[in-house]
Each structure stands twice: as C-alpha cells, then as structure tokens.
Design brief:
- The protein is α+β, with helices and mostly antiparallel strands and 393 residues long.
- 65% of the residues lie in helices and 7% in strands.
- The protein has a four-stranded antiparallel sheet.
- A hairpin with a 2-residue loop joins strand 1 and strand 2.
- Helix 3 crosses helix 7, helix 4 crosses helix 7 and helix 9 runs antiparallel to helix 11.
- The N and C termini lie far apart (64 Å).
- The mean pLDDT is 86.
Length: 393
C-alpha cells in the first residue's frame, strides 16, 4: 500500500496579525502624520506672512545693521552689514564658551580632588561649594556677579591702579594693548609654537616609552614661545606699538578692555559649571579600583604622583562622557548673556529681529549656530573618548 507524502502546510500570507506588517504600517502612518503636520505648519506660516506682507529669506543679511556692538573681536561699525554683526555675535559666544570650558575644567578638577582630600577642612569646603552653587539658578548668579562688579568698583575718575597704566573701575579692566601690523604675525607665531609644543610632547612621550629617557620639554617649549613670535615680529617689519589707556571725559580711551558684562558672564558660567564638573571628576576618581592606589603606593610613589600618573588616566574613561554634557550645557547657558548686556549671538540676533521683523530667519540662525557648536564639541569629545577607552583584545 503506497502512502502519499504528507502535505506541506500552505504558506500564510502576511496579514494584520504579523508583527512585521503591523510595525511597517505603524511607521508609515507615523511618518505620514509628521509630514502632514509639517506641511500644515509651513503652509500656515507662509499664508500668515503673505497676509502681513512680510518677505522671507536671508537677503537682509547684506543690509546695513545700523546699531553698535559694545565688544567686538573683529572690526565693526554701525555701517557694517547684519551678516558681519552675526559673525561678531558668534565669535563673542565662542570666546566666552572656550574660556569657560578651560577654567571650569581646571577648577572642577581641583575641587573634585579637594572633595576627596584627607584634610577635613578642604573636603568640607569643597562640599559646601558644590552643594551651594549648583542649587542656585545660574541667571540669579549672573545678576549677583554683575551687581558685585559694577557696584563695588569706583567710577573711571577714581579708578584703582594696581599697576602702572592699568585701571580698574566699574567700566571694566583697562590694560595696555599691542597694536600694529606685527601683531597678527606674532599671534601666528604663537599658534605655531603651541602646535609645535604639542607635537614635541607627543614625540617625547613615545621616545620615553621606547627608550626610557625623559625629554626636556620645558626648555624647548620656552624657546618656541619666544622664538616664533619674535620671528614673526622681525618678518613683519617690526611694526609694533603699545596702546596705553587714557582717561578722556567719563571713560577711558585706548588699550584693551575686559568689560563688566564679559567678566560677570565668565565668572558666573565658570563658578556654576565648576560645581558640576567637580562632581564628575570626583565620581571618576572613585570609580578607579582601590587596588590601583595600593599598588602605586607599594612602589613608593607620592600621593600626588599616584593621582596624576595612575588614577586620573584611568578615571578619564569615566569622566569624559559626562564632562561632554557639561561642556554642552555651558555653551547653551551662555545664551543668558542677554540678561546682563553681553553681546552674544542671541543678543545681536534679538536686535536684528526687532529691526527687520525677520523672526523666523533669526531663530533659525540661532538654532544653526548652537547646533553647529554643540555638534563640534560632541564630535571632538567622542573622538577623545575613543582614544582613552580600553581596547579589548
């Protein structure tokens, strides 16, 4: 008796009960709903702009700005364009952000280490600082520092003179400044010197690892810092002069100024961010196994060397990711500069929007500026994090 082969079950057609089909349908519906919402918002925006006879676009960037900016890193007058004014605001934001990152990292590292100090007083003072500062809103701290700087300092005619030709008043700190064609060449030489020092440091570390012989970096660094700017001064024709601040009327003229607005913003950002970076550093150090301390101590290393050579390099693997978030927070918190009158990108674009009525374009420019800076910081910190991360074999 011949038995027929068993029949294969018929393939089921994909239907609503298939999870893959449902997932695809839900995604298509979600994308469609988002696209419909975006289309509605844009069409409604264009209709309202047309009804109010408001032109769109970025052609206004080539028009004359017509307003002054108190602090500029580039040449600027009210006759300059809106585009140049925006660049001034971006540079001002980058300046305070870069200085804030550097100082908050240095102070945060010191206070984070201080919280783990064996000295009871230092540990408690560091704890009080962290707990007090990070629980007070940053905007309130900016107002506090700005009022301290402006109210506690005398007027220009009664300005303090801690050094010759240096004046400290409620208009800021005035110091002599170098000017002339040679300044740019000397700055270029200084940048090249810093790049050369970084390259020599990297080469010296690799040489020490290979041969055991230390490299005298300090002498070479001092030589580069002196020689390259001096070479730039010679190549540029030695056109250099000293601009000394002089009291004229109710204010000083000449020299370089550290304004109360920049000082208050920088101090406020650094003091506030340091409280958070200190906790990041403390957590990173405590994440290193205690056996690392014991092994280094058994070799006779001092506690400072153990911390610098053994513990901190390992703690960086824990410190870098949350430190990235603190740097991004500092950059975004710099937008509070508008509250104390520092001309950052938000302040300048607010003025521009009031004059031109191009609110949509202004907001887009602010978003693009902060997005670009934040992504740049995140990219660099992710690259550095990969460098210090442990690589498994």
């Amino acid at each position: 008796m011949n038995s027929s082969p068993p029949r294969r079950p018929a393939a089921r057609r994909p239907g609503w009960h298939d999870p893959g089909v449902r997932s695809a349908i839900y995604q298509i519906l979600a994308v469609g709903a988002v696209a419909l919402a975006v289309w509605f918002l844009i069409s409604n925006l264009l209709h309202n702009l047309s009804a109010r006879h408001i032109t769109t676009g970025f052609a206004f960037l080539h028009r004359e700005a017509g307003f002054d900016i108190g602090e500029t890193l580039l040449a600027y007058t009210p006759a300059s364009t809106y585009g140049r004014a925006i660049w001034i605001g971006i540079l001002n934001t980058l300046l305070v952000s870069a200085l804030g990152v550097v100082f908050s990292t240095l102070l945060g590292t010191l206070i984070g280490i201080g919280r783990l100090s064996r000295n009871w007083l230092i540990a408690k003072l560091a704890m009080v600082y962290v707990e007090a500062v990070r629980n007070v809103p940053l905007l309130l701290q900016l107002f506090f520092w700005y009022s301290i700087i402006t109210e506690s300092m005398p007027g220009p005619r009664q300005a303090h003179r801690p050094l010759p030709d240096v004046f400290l008043s409620n208009r800021g700190l005035k110091i002599p400044a170098l000017h002339g064609e040679s300044v740019d060449w000397m700055l270029l030489g200084l940048v090249l010197a810093l790049v050369g020092i970084a390259a020599l440091r990297h080469w010296g570390r690799r040489r020490q690892q290979a041969t055991g012989q230390p490299f005298a970096l300090a002498r070479w660094a001092l030589g580069l810092i002196v020689a390259l700017p001096g070479l730039g001064w010679l190549l540029s024709g030695r056109h250099l002069a000293l601009d000394v601040p002089v009291l004229r009327g109710f204010n000083f003229a000449g020299g370089w100024t550290l304004s109360p607005e920049l000082a208050a913003l920088l101090v406020g950002l650094v003091v506030y961010t340091t409280a958070f970076t200190a906790e990041v550093v403390r957590a990173g150090i405590q994440a290193v196994d205690a056996g690392q301390w014991e092994a280094a101590n058994s070799l006779g290393l001092r506690r400072g060397l153990v911390l610098r050579l053994v513990v901190l390099p390992q703690a960086l693997r824990v410190i870098v990711p949350p430190m990235t978030s603190q740097y991004l927070n500092l950059v975004k918190n710099s937008s509070l500069a508008v509250a104390i009158g520092y001309p950052d990108i938000v302040s300048i674009l607010d003025t521009m929007m009031n004059q031109t009525g191009q609110a949509i374009e202004g907001v887009l420019l602010i978003m693009a500026a902060y997005l670009t800076v934040s992504l740049t910081i995140a990219f660099f910190m992710n690259w550095y994090n990969r460098r210090v991360a442990l690589v498994e074999r």
